[in-house]
Amino acid sequence: MTLSLSTPDFLIERNRDRCINCRVCVRQCANEAHIWDEEEQRVKSDDALCVDCQRCVTLCPTHALTIRKYPLEFRENANWSANAIKAIYKQAESGGILLTGMGNDQPYPIFWDHLLLNASQVTNPSIDPLREPMELKTFLGRKPEKLMMRDGKLVEDMPPQLELEVPIMFSAMSYGSISLNAIKSLAAAAEKTGIMYNTGEGGLHKDLYKYGKNTIVQVASGRFGVHPQYLEAGAAIEIKIGQGAKPGIGGHLPGEKVGLEVSQTRMIPEGTDAISPAPHHDIYSIEDLRQLIYSLKEATQYRKPVGVKIAAVHNIAAIASGIARAGADIIAIDGFRGGTGAAPLRTRDNVGLPIELALAAVDSRLREEGIRNQVSLVIGGSIRNSADIVKAIALGADAVYIGTAALISLGCHLCQKCNTGKCNWGIATQNPQLVKRLNPEIGAERAANLISAWEHEIKELLGGMGINAIESLRGNRLMLRGIGLSDRELSILGVMAAGE
Amino acid sequence: MLREGQVRIPSGCAISGIMNKRGEVFSGQDIIKSIALMHDRSNGLGGGFAAYGIYPDYPEHYAFHLYYEEQAAKEKTEQKLNSLFHVAESGKIPTRRVSSIRQAPLAWRYFVRPKPESLLEDESEDELVVRTVMHINSQIKGAFVVSSGQNMGAFKGVGFPEDMGEYFRLEEYKGNIWLAHGRFPTNTPGWWGGAHPFTLLDWSIVHNGEISSYGANKRYLEMFGYRLTMQTDTEAITYAFDLLLRKQNVPLDIAIATLAAPFWRDIERMDPERQKLFKTVRAVYGSLLLNGPFSIILGSNKGIVALNDRLKLRSLVAASQGDFLYVASEESAIREICPNPERVWAPRGGEPVIGLFEEGGNLV
Predict the structure, then answer these.
(1) Contact list, B248 vs chain A (CB under 8 Å)
(2) Is the CB of residue B2 less than 8 Å away from at least one CB of chain A?
(3) Which among A124, A367, A476 has the least Cβ separation from residue B210?
(4) What is the full DSSP assignment across A2-56?
(5) pLDDT of the residue at B231
(6) How many CB pairs under 8 A join A and B?
């Protein structure tokens, strides 16, 4: 091989006054950036292997380690950034597609940060959630346009609904892309907090069937692990069409991640690549989607809501309207900041739409067409905190999916190397040595804590607005004002400017 | 300056209502006295009344009360009315000069019956009237329909309610239900159409409060074809009742459980059948829940319903004496006209006070 022109991304600084050569860092780093030098009897580092996951920094008992951005200064060039140059060195070496993990990290506008919330002053009272009931219960599923009643009794039952105590769910992350311990953490946290987690396209591991009433089972283009018992196991079914991080792209779980248990769960031979085709090969159009929706409804005797997850793309409003008309009970829309276990870098960073605009456009369109009741709207990619959730619901969402935030609660440090399978935090890996670093009981507690912390914050924000039930916030865009936005953006978001 | 409808104006208010359950009519004097007592709850920028049973000569005719700001609006409106309806009688609504009342629009009323050929396929007479009202209010500049129900009418404008009562000579009318409203808007509504009560067909609503769910309520109602041109809570509440009671035939108790829904913690304690019913109501009609403070009185030809928000964030007192039922923002406003009622009570949040005419049957 010729000389590599690649230079390290990060610099490992070891404070020799503090380092006691205990070798914790050596044992912790799956990337082997820390090395024990037998000859010199001391720990050394190879900067080139560091991914800045902060595992060694966090675990170093003497706080001897600091990771910095590598101080490599290319000659200043407003056009050719260091990343742009380094990408070319890599591709010149490999001849391959650049891969990455997690969501779009480019500096596109974040509309959440341009929306401000309202509060009550004088003309109506704010409500104190510590004194008054504050209700966040949310139902996802098709709602009839009116209640049919006779002699004070309901003539027919409501279509099947998902009942959430908080309008938050853990978004789809498959077994294979993340570890069993990570999934167990989220499943147990969902059970604890009365919400849902989503299997992703990796099937349902046998240990997870007990969380069925808090599970959304996904049916994706690879149809991995899909069988009648699987469909019956969850509280709802989700057809995955697309993902915000890689709209229009399928999935590829490399064979080295397909160990015995992944292979059994996905129902594929051990060690083989699991390839999810870009489209479903039985869905080439909207009428085909309708058939799959109704096949799944038939298979589960119309007892479970069936949702469809799509990535936010340019024509999102019309697509969502078509999906509602195709019979979906829930539409999940994933914005271009949504995370992924692996995606082509150029797709992740350049395809799709911000979820805020997609959500506003879809909610408005469904209302214009008078079919907003027929379908619930769940959005994700990316929700970073409780205020984002409140803003999303005010724009028109029924609930939100959180993926990246959920993983961060388990210890993820957003190093964006999920695709390598070397996750030092035991999350995006199938290496048993790494997986056991994540204790599912502690993970469940941390993820559940995040949900209850956000629940408290949502209640505070609602109370401040003089609202004591989440349904009164839903689509209530008068509670929002835009700041630093163009007239066009304000009109797409359907909000007034701050000061109006 | 933007006028009401172009901008949302939060308001505080006084409300009062009197009904005679046997349907016997009485003059407007009492309601004026009652609302006048709560003078300080309004600020002179809005006052009004709704009265039922006042047009016994035309009980089956829709009584259109119109305000005109210009002559051209009157001509266009009359052209529209004449094309769709037989007009049995029309004329100026009688007024007297009151020093504090300024810039009054021309107030005109019409007693009309729909022409059978005006009805669209499957359209009821009520729906034709609603369509006409929406058309006039949104399409004819300078014209505003104040009320459009049978054997009822609304009288309202910019001023204190007692002055408005004097201006419209309400002591000369006799009705079996009287509702009154005194308004404390935070900025000037600019025109008479912005005053309350708000009406549609024979529904009328007087309301005190500012609903924090307005944006959610409005966008839900718009899906059912309502155009909320006034940007007021009262308008949204009227349409919510109209949708539930008239269009969807939902029973009154369920409509009330929609607007002032029981809390989940209370639903959990209900028997399984009621639990399922109320869970369904909240899941299906969640967007119609009225959140934040309100006290309202809904009037119709069948009776009245008074209701508080579920936390009781606004005052509302009820009283009864013989055949009379009273509801008001303050107990003093009732005692002013009925010093020693047999019963006085403060309804709990979400618990309606329902008064129906003995002869009238159900509210819808």
Answers:
(1) 146-147
(2) no
(3) A124
(4) PPP----SEEEEE-TTT-----HHHHH-TT--EEEETTTTEEEE-GGG-----HH
(5) 80
(6) 119
**Nearest CA of chain B to the CA of A330: how many Å?**
14
d(CA B215, CA B219) in angstroms, rounded, equals: 6
Q: How far is it, in rounded angstroms, from Cα B232 to Cα B57? A: 33
Residue numbers in A near B10 (CB within 8 A): 123-124
Instruction: Show Cβ contacts of residue A365 under 8 Å, excluding neighbours closer than 6 positions.
Output: A317, A318, A320, A321
Chain A's closest residue to B6, CA to CA, is A500
- Across the interface, whether the CB atoms of B250 and A125 are under 8 A apart is answered no
Amino acid at B237: I
**A73-82, B160-169, B223-232: range with highest mean pLDDT:** B160-169
Q: Which two tokens stand for residue B296?
A: 């309202």
Residue for token digits 């311990």?
A181
Tell me the pLDDT tens digit for each residue of A243-289. 999 999 998 888 888 999 999 999 999 999 999 999 999 999 999 99
pLDDT at A151: 86
**pLDDT score for B169:** 97
pLDDT at A3: 80
For each of the domains in chain A, give its residue range(s) and CATH number, in order of start. 10-96 (3.30.70.20), 138-497 (3.20.20.70)
Q: What is the pLDDT of residue A122?
A: 87
Domain range B12-54+151-210+295-301+309-356, CATH class: alpha beta
Sign of CA dihedral A232, A233, A235, A240: negative
Residue with tokens 């630093």: A484
Beta strands in B164-216 (DSSP E): 174-175, 177-185, 198-200, 203-209
Name residues whose C-beta falls within 8 Å of residue A415's C-beta, 6 or more positions apart in sequence.
A51, A52, A53, A54
Tell me how far apart the alpha carbons of residues B350 and B346 are, in angstroms, rounded to a whole number: 12
Strand A343-344 versus strand A376-380 pairing type: unpaired
Domain residue spans of chain B: 12-54+151-210+295-301+309-356
What pLDDT is recorded for position B184?
A: 85
CA distance A179 to A176: 6
Q: Which of B82, B85, B146 shows the shortest CA–CA distance to B116?
A: B85
In order of A240, A244, A306, the CA distances from A337 in angstroms are: 17, 7, 25
CA distance A145 to chain B (A): 8
DSSP type of residue B347: P
Q: What is the pTM of this model?
A: 0.93
Residues 20-79 of B with CB under 8 A from A: none
Alpha-carbon separation of residue B203 from B50, B179, B185, B200 (angstroms): 10, 11, 23, 5
In this prediction, residue B190 carries a pLDDT of 65
Two structure tokens written together for B192 = 């008479």
**In the annotation, is B338 catalytic?**
no
C-alpha R_g of chain B = 19
Beta-sheet strands, E only, within chain B: 11-20, 26-27, 47-52, 62-68, 85-92, 106-114, 143-147, 152-157, 174-175, 177-185, 198-200, 203-209, 294-300, 303-308, 317-321, 324-328, 343-345, 353-356
What average pLDDT does the segment B97-119 reach?
A: 94
Contact criterion met (CB below 8 Å) for B200 and B238: yes
Q: How far apart are CA A303 and CA A286, in angstroms?
A: 23
- Are B53 and B151 within 8 A, CB to CB? yes
**Rounded-to-integer distance, Cα A410 and Cα A404, Å:** 10
Q: What is the per-residue pLDDT for B363?
A: 56
What span, in angstroms and rounded, lies between the C-alpha atoms of A416 and A258?
21
Asked if residue A228 has a cis previous peptide bond (ω within 30° of 0), the answer is no
Interface of A with B (CB under 8 A): 120, 123-125, 127, 132-133, 135, 137, 139, 143-144, 146-147, 149, 152-154, 157-158, 161, 367, 370, 372-373, 394, 465-469, 471-479
